[in-house]
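Troubleshooting log. The previous structure file for this entry was overwritten by mistake, so regenerating from the original sequence record. Sequence copied from the archived sheet and checked twice against the printout by T.R.
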Amino acid sequence: MASPPMPMATPIRCRRAASPRQIRCFCRSLRRRSRGRTGNNSGIATFCPNPAQNCLSHRPCGWRAKTRKTIRQSTSRRGALGFLLAGVAGCTAKGPAYQPANIVPTSSTGVIYVYRPSGTVATRGESPFVTIDGKSYGAMKTGAYIAAAVPEGNVKVTVQQSVLLVLPAIPKSVDVAVVAGTTSYVRVDQNIIDAGVTEGVTVAQEVAIEEVTSEQAQQELETTRLNG
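Regenerated output below.
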């Protein structure tokens, strides 16, 4: 009695790959780990002995290499972006810790505190330029405050965005109605609103300015230092 014929390996259609090496890698992912062989670059694995549903992976070798490359590029970009944001972030104030200024409101003048909260490094922009009643007070460092005696009446406080650490631009202002013998508070800031490294380095920043209540200002001023 003749012995039954040996079972033939079932051809499995693998994904077309750029090289036979990728096909061999694909076939090695089968459970029986047989080395695949390809013919005429057709993308057919002619010696994959198991059905396709038994494959441990249907992805060719190149997929893993491409994924690792993408991960490395993404990690590199995140690192570059973090380094960029750290470089852009404005310096923190180094002056004495906040205490009520020696400037006292008089019968004809008031006092304006202009301050900038510390914020977070990830969103902290460069140091904006501050002007009070036409007098420039220079760059406002993060976590800093300024106190100025001003005449009674409407006083304009202006903040200008700094670009590339040097160039002042894009001013914003608020008019403070100063009453003699009183103190007013103005909060300013410059923050990063968008950043990317896809097609070169881009950082978008914006300034903000508003008059705030004494209660809010006193809470935030406690963590500031004299600008300088």
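Residues 65 and 132 are 59 Å apart (CA to CA). Archived copy saved in two places this time.
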